[in-house]
Amino acid sequence: MKKFRTDHALAIFAVAAGLCSGCGLKESSIPDTKAVVYNNRGMGYANDHNYEKAIEDYSKAIENNPKFAAAYLNRGDAYKNKSDYNKAIEDYSMAIAIDPKLAAAYKNRGAAYRKKGASVKAADDERICQNLSQKKQR
C-alpha cells in the first residue's frame, strides 16, 4: 500500500484553487468551490501539523464562503492544537451559529472550555453533543 503524500496532495489543491503561477489553469470563479479547496488544503497542512498554514487556508475558505461551518470547525481545531483556546472557542461558536446541529463543534468547543478550566460550559457542550449524536442515530 502506498503511503499518503501530503506534499503531493497540497500541490494538487494549489492547482485546483488556481494558486499556481503559470500552470495554465484559471482561478475558480465559484466562491464555494474555492472555499472547499482552501478548506481541504488546510486539512492537509493540519495533517502535517503546520497549523499556521492551515489557519491561513481556513481563513481564505471563510473569506470565500462566510457560511462554511466546516471551515470554522477546522480552523478552531487548528487554534486548539496551538493551545489558543479563546480563538478556538470563537470559531467553534461561529460553526454552531451557522449549523446548530454540528455535534463536532459542540464536542470540540467543550474540550477547549475544559482546557481553560470552564468545566460547567464544557459539560453543557458535551451534553448537547451527546444529544445530537443520539438523535442522528435514530
Topology:
Layout: H1 6-16, H2 31-47, H3 51-64, H4 69-81, H5 85-98, H6 103-116, H7 119-137
Helix pairs in contact: 1-2, 2-3, 2-4, 3-4, 4-5, 4-6, 5-6, 6-7
Descriptive notes:
- This protein is mainly alpha-helical.
- The protein has a single domain, classed as Tetratricopeptide repeat domain (Serine Threonine Protein Phosphatase 5, Tetratricopeptide repeat, Alpha Horseshoe), CATH 1.25.40.
- The chain has seven helices and no strands.
- The chain has helices spanning 6-16, 31-47, 51-64, 69-81, 85-98, 103-116, 119-137.
- The protein is globular, with a radius of gyration of 16 Å.
- It starts with 5 loop residues before the first helix and ends with a helix.
- The model is unreliable at 20-30 (pLDDT under 50).
Helicity, in percent? over 70%
Number of distinct beta strands: 0
Terminal Cα separation, in Å?
36 Å
Low-confidence stretches: 20-30
**Which range does the strand content fall in?**
under 5%
CATH topology: Serine Threonine Protein Phosphatase 5, Tetratricopeptide repeat
Q: Mind telling me which CATH architecture this is? A: Alpha Horseshoe
**From N to C, what is the helix and strand string?**
HHHHHHH
Which structural class matches the secondary elements? mainly alpha
Q: What is the domain total for the residues?
A: 1
Q: Any idea what the radius of gyration is?
A: 16 Å
